[in-house]
Amino acid sequence: MTARYWWGEIDESGACIPAPADEGAALARLASIETPMDGYLPGTWEAAVACGAVPDRAAYLARLNTLTAHLAADRVAEALRGPDLELLQMVRTLDELDSVINLLTERAVEWYATQDPKFTRKFRAMPARRLVEVLAPRSRGPLRGVLAQIEGLGAARTELAREVTRAAARVLPNSSELVGGLVAARLMAAAGSLDALARLPGSGLQVLGARTALFSHIRTGTPPPKHGLIFQHRRVHNAPLAVRGRVARVLAARLVIAARIDRYRGELDPAFIEGANARIDGVLA
Amino acid sequence: MIWRDKSLLSPGEGGVYGERMRGGYRVWDPRRSKFAALAHLDPGFDLEPGTRVLYLGAANGTTVSHVADYAEVVYAVEFAPRPMQDLLAVARRRKNIIPILADAGRPAQYAHLLEPVDLLFQDVAQPHQAAIAVRNRLFLVPGGRLALMLKVRSIDQSRPLDEVGDEAVAALEAGGFAVDSVRPLTPHHRDHLAILGHRVA
Lengths: 285, 201
Prior knowledge:
Order of helices and strands of chain B: EEEEHEHEHEEHEHHEE
Strand order of the largest sheet of chain A: 1-2-3
CATH architecture of the largest domain in chain A: Orthogonal Bundle
Strand content of chain A: under 5%
Radius of gyration of chain A: 29 Å
Shape of chain B: globular
Helix content of chain B: 25-40%
CATH architecture of chain B: 3-Layer(aba) Sandwich
Number of strands of chain A: 3
CATH superfamily of chain B: Vaccinia Virus protein VP39
Largest sheet of chain B: 7 strands, mixed
Oligomer: heterodimer
Distance between the termini of chain B: 29 Å
Number of domains of chain A: 3
CATH class of the largest domain in chain A: Mainly Alpha
Number of domains of chain B: 1
Number of helices of chain B: 6
Strand content of chain B: 25-35%
Largest sheet of chain A: 3 strands, antiparallel
Largest interface: A-B, 27 and 28 residues
Structural class of chain B: alpha/beta
Number of helices of chain A: 14
CATH superfamily of the largest domain in chain A: Nop domain
Distance between the termini of chain A: 67 Å
CATH class of chain B: Alpha Beta
Helix content of chain A: 55-70%
């Protein structure tokens, strides 16, 4: 059997063929080698020199460092190329922005209350975002700058949410069609990648994002969670309590199929969507 | 290895990860590196200049950079692409690091890149750590040393350290290693056992 090493190969007769000197050709050869481990003997640098692949030990290491660095860089680039990876960062940043904006707003409102003793939020149904806009011109000193920054973050958040929905429609066309781009993207991020999402069972996807409740159920026998992130989809959270669990289960079962179509076919399947929606809405009817 | 006032040092170009320098040497912090922790706890553990090392679980190359300051060559195997980006940056400045993006549990993926090594150092967060060491035994020269940093909590969340350690030792001895010592890496690292041994088969 021919023994193949990075610097060349030795056939049964002991004859040695050095690997191509050209870097591109050598890399292509390396990318394709898998060594059977039965009866394997590691190659030695002396054999590489005897083969004529390299002149000495220093050249052996220098060439190996160059080749492996290229090979690893290519593989890293390949692993990071998937469009789902950027979507994952986008949706995690979006959720992070939400919590940062909430924390800052809460703090800034408390600060404003010390500048304006009559200030109260009672009897004013005002969303936090609007509140920041109203308080900004009335506040003094550095607080004004902070409020302006919060407004800026809000604008960035809106822009990013729109971008997430757009990217999700591209990367997760079928899942997005079933539950909307934001929820679909959050599910993918919770699973870790589109690959991981497509390999989940329906029961797993159903409780993605309900980790605490799930493990409390497994450990101490509390009731199992009916839904995790998919609760954010309107057909789940608007469903009557009596059927909410069933809606979540049926939806999750269709969603994993959608995720698999997204992963392995990558395009919208209107016939599937129609059937899935009919099945989900059938539970609600 | 180089010691000064109870600090472990390594000779090489600094600034890899913001490490402190002392007298032109890089300070090798035992709280950041299991390798350094082992050197602090076991006076008999040494890394002679010129050693050839196979390092499984190279991560961002923090410890690898120190090992490379002493060793002749470090074959650094790491599975995850993100830390590999950092490791590649380290390997660009230290030409005796051979970066390998592969699964340490599948030596067939990288066997053709290696040569016989003197020391197998393993620090991987996997449930079957002993089996990984056994599979990589073939790369050690006869009698070559094993330093396995057993991450106990990657194997079992709740069982006592000794119990999990004993099982790993048994698996190593069944797989062609002789185990010389087992010690916890406290106080530097929690839930880690350093298992030292050498290849016998």
